[in-house]
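worker-3 :: picked Small ribosomal subunit protein uS3
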Amino acid sequence: MGQKVNPKSIRLKINENWQSKWFGRHDFTNNLISDVKIRRALLTKLKDASISNIDIKRDANKVSIDIYSGRPGVVIGRGGAGSDDLKKFLSTFVKDKIQINIIEIKRPDGNAAIIGQNIANQIEKRMPFRRAMKQSIEKAKTTGVKGMKIQISGRLNGADIARSEKLAFGTVPLGTFKSKIDYAYITALTTYGIIGIKVWIYNGEKLMTIDELIN
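worker-3 :: tokens ->
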């Protein structure tokens, strides 16, 4: 079962929380579409900022956006101008008041989304995929993660037949719900087609506290 579902979604309210937090019985569809547009727009605009995830909270007339970045300086910009530019950019399709919070990721080399993005960038620059995988795992080991697995699928190195390659270290217990699993799926666009990159990182066991459940 742990191999067939998203490790984060199956652990919601165990040790993972929703990335969209709002209540809208009548506006559910519009809010959902708006959240998707916000995330896609920010990920495209901030593609060089090592974005891990984007949390969105909605109140009566305000949208609060938390951007988790491994390179917060790229998001903030000189003198904080980047935040103002993002607000202006988002205001073109978000009617409510916008608040942007930029949160630094202390260990980007141990973050699944950032690792996946780095591997994708290296593959797009024609680096051998095995070297990119090995480098990512060696960097992750220095951050203290307990286990990691990388899977790359597609026409690897331009092969005629698509295949999958895996590389791992430590343990990644996907079947244990209290295991804190960081997961990401990233795609790399090459001249031979799309390469899919999956990254699983095991950070030990954890259960959410009451405060974390409420918030």
